[in-house]
Design a protein that fits this description.
2 strands; 3 domains; mainly alpha; 131 residues
Length: 131
């Protein structure tokens, strides 16, 4: 099962930049907000899956997790995001201005992975504390 949100682009149900409670209140008060729920059939792994895709993981659960993720991405039209969960948590902390959050734009990353120049530093907690 997966959920795709429709409507205008004025409100997104992503809670990486806003805490859960304010987002919940905004979502409930937004009249043009809707969601489409798609239920997929049960997926039972078999030996063929584990043999054919053994390159996707060293453990059977890793192959199964890869297969489920692949099905959800293809049928839901989702983009592949292989960003580690720890990086997502750091970004969430920064966007919600949590105390001690690290500015993701100041982390050292490879040239290929660098984001384009933005004004995000204007909103960093460090800048606000100095002002």
């Amino acid at each position: 099962m997966f959920i795709k949100y429709a409507g205008t682009s004025s409100l997104s149900p992503a809670y990486d930049s806003i805490e859960w409670l304010p987002l919940f209140i905004l979502t409930l008060s937004w009249a043009g907000f809707s969601a489409e729920i798609t239920v997929l059939p049960d997926f039972t792994p078999n030996e063929y899956l584990f043999e054919k895709h053994k390159d996707k993981g060293s453990e059977r659960w890793e192959v199964f997790a890869w297969a489920i993720r692949d099905v959800l991405m293809k049928h839901g039209g989702f983009k592949d995001c292989s960003q580690p969960l720890s990086e997502k948590f750091r970004y969430e902390q920064f966007m919600q201005s949590k105390k001690g959050a690290v500015n993701p734009h100041k982390l050292s990353v490879s040239v290929e992975a660098q984001a384009p120049e933005t004004d995000m530093e204007l909103f960093s907690p460090e800048k606000r504390e100095k002002e």
